[in-house]
Write a structure and sequence with these properties.
This protein is 49% helix and 7% strand. With 191 residues, it is mainly alpha-helical. The chain has two domains: 3-48 and 59-78, no CATH class; 81-188, no CATH class. The radius of gyration is 18 Å and the shape is globular.
Length: 191
């Protein structure tokens, strides 16, 4: 099997894995269990260089390549998201209302191929997630879509009901009807 065929097979497998997770509103995870969506700032890159690490191309095979994982996760995020008209149909509203909410930043959209795609994490049972308007408005505007999806779907230690239970994700917290302000505060501090 050629190297190109291995990469294509790995990418297809990674894509299907990411797609399954996103359709179930589960977080995307890399091989190590950490977020597959993490990007490095200039300061972080400098810190890596200072301790002898590099951001050179990955050489451990395409299945473990963070770039391949990010690309497949991103494509799966786009594929599993609603178009504006699909979101409108799902919510039983006019498409102009969805476009208005995107302009107001009260729904999260990803620009792709001349249209907006709306990730599913912000919807539940034919409705918009409770409190999503406030949370989306509090998020910094320039975030990577994978980071936003991962943040919404991953457990957060600041969203605990009591010490005996697992922390909730922002999505789960909002679905359970807990204080929107707690998630808004986390969104404001999201970098």
């Amino acid at each position: 099997m050629s190297n190109g065929a291995v990469i294509d097979e790995d990418a297809a497998r990674l894509y299907e894995e990411a797609r399954r997770h996103l359709l179930k509103n589960e977080p995307l995870r890399g091989e190590s269990g950490e977020s597959a969506a993490r990007t490095l700032s200039a300061g972080e890159l400098d810190a890596l260089k200072a301790v002898g690490l590099t951001s050179a191309p990955f050489s451990e095979g395409s299945a473990r390549d963070p770039l391949t994982r990010s690309i497949t996760d991103y494509m799966a995020l786009l594929e599993t998201s609603y178009s504006t008209s699909e979101a409108a149909s799902y919510l039983k509203v006019d498409a102009s209302r969805v476009r208005q909410r995107l302009r107001e930043h009260s729904l999260f959209g990803i620009d792709y191929d001349g249209e907006k795609r709306l990730p599913r994490f912000q919807f539940e049972r034919k409705q918009v997630l409770p409190g999503i308007r406030e949370v989306i408005a509090a998020l910094p505007a320039d975030l990577n879509p994978l980071d936003v999806a991962e943040w919404f779907l991953s457990s957060n230690p600041d969203l605990e009901i009591n010490a005996q239970e697992m922390p909730l994700s922002p999505r789960e917290w909002l679905l359970k009807g807990h204080a929107v302000e707690a998630v808004v505060k986390l969104a404001q501090g999201f970098e």
